[in-house]
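Collaborator request, handled under Task 6.
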Amino acid sequence: MNPHKGLILDETVKYHQDLQDDGPFVPGTTEIWPAGAVLDEADRTAIVEAALEMRIAAGPSSRRFESRFARKLGHRKAHLTNSGSSANLLALSAFTSHLLEDRRLRPGDEVITVAAGFPTTVNPIIQNGLVPVFVDVELGTYNTTAARVAEAIGPRTRAIMIAHALGNPFEATEIAQLAEEHDLFLIEDNCDAVGSTYDGRLTGSFGDITTVSFYPAHHLAMGEGGCVLTSNLALARIVESLRDWGRDCWCEPGETNKCLKRFAYQMGTLPEGYDHKYIFSHVGYNLKATDIQAALGLSQLDKLDSFCAARRRNWQQLRDGLDGTPHLLLPEATVRSDPSWFGFALTVDPEAPFTRAALVDFLEQRKIGTRRLFAGNLTRHPAYLGRPHRVVGDLANSDIITDQTFWIGVYPALTEEMLAYVIASVRQFVEAGS
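C-alpha cells returned to the collaborator:
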C-alpha cells in the first residue's frame, strides 16, 4: 500500500473515533429516530479508500458487491442501481422487453399490487403503460393474502408486484404458486425485508425478479442505491441493458472487445459492422451506482447478519413491552415467517378515546420519531386520481391504515434503554387517555 494512502486511512479511523458521541441517552432530549444508517470506522474508511482510488463511476467494487450480494441472497446475478426505486422500475420494465416475445407485458396489461404501500412499488406499473389492480391488506401483518390475489386475477392479468410490508413477508409460497399456475410474472419488492424468511426461504427468492434498496433507512446503506436480482440469465441481461443506456453490448465501461467481434454485428437497419458498443436494443436509462457507493456496500455487507439480528431483537422488545396495551393493534409476523423487521407498526383502534394524531404528537414531543405506513391508501393520493386502475374487493383496511396507523423504529442503533423509554411513553399516553 502506498505509505501516504496508509497514513490517510489510519487518520480516517482516528477521525471517526474522535467524532463519536459517547454521551448518555437523555429521555426526552436525545432523538430516537425511526430509521437510519449504522456506520462505523470500517465504513468511513471504505468510502475514503474508494475516493483515493478516484473510482468515480461503477467499477471493481461494484462488480464485487454484485457478486457477493447475489450469493448472499441465493441468486445468480445482481445489478446495482442508483436507488431501490430505480431497481423497481428496471425489474418491471424488463418484462416489457421484446426479447420475451409473446410473453412480454404490453400496454393495458394488468399487474396486481396492494393499495397500502410505498408508491415506487406501483409507479413502474403506470410508467410502463400497464394497469395496477389494487387489493387490500390485513391489519396486523399489513400484507395482502394469496386469497385476495387469486380473486384479483382477470383475463388481462400478467404479473404480480408486491412488497413485503415493513420487513414482514407476504404469503410468498402461495402467491408464487398462483403466479406459476396462471403463467404470471412475480416481482418481489424486497426493499424492506432483506434477511426475512418465509417457509424457511429468504424473501426475494420466490419471484422471477427481486429488488432491494440501500437508502439509509434500509438494512444496508449506500447513501443512495439499490439492486435487481434474479437467477434467470435472460432477465438479467435485459435488466443490464435497460440499466446501461439500453445498449446491446455487455462489455463493462473501459472494456473494448470482450466478445471478440465488436465490429461484426448487424442489428436493426444499421450497417454491418456498426460498433457494438453503440448499438441500442432497448429504450433504456443510466441507472448505475458508483464505486464509492459499492465500497460502502461491501463494508456494510459484512455486518448484515448482525443488523438483522438487532432488528429482530428490538422489534421483540417493543412487542413484549407493549403487549396488552389497550386500544392499540400490535403487529404480528405472518404465519410461517421470520421477519427481519423494518419497523414496528401500531394501529389505533378507531373507537379509542384518543386519536392517532394525538399519540403521534405526544411521542414526537418526547423526541420519539414516527412515520406513517408510507402512503396509506395510494388510490386516494393526487398522483393517482384519474389513472387507469382496477380495485378488487374493498380497501377498507387500507383506509384504516391511512387514518389510524404509524410505525416506530427498530433499526440497530436503538438501545434497550431507548426502547424502554418508547414503551413507557406509549403506555403513559394510553393509560392517561383511557
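The cover message to the collaborator said: "The longest strand covers residues 157-163. The chain has a mean pLDDT of 96. Please let us know whether this matches your experimental observations."
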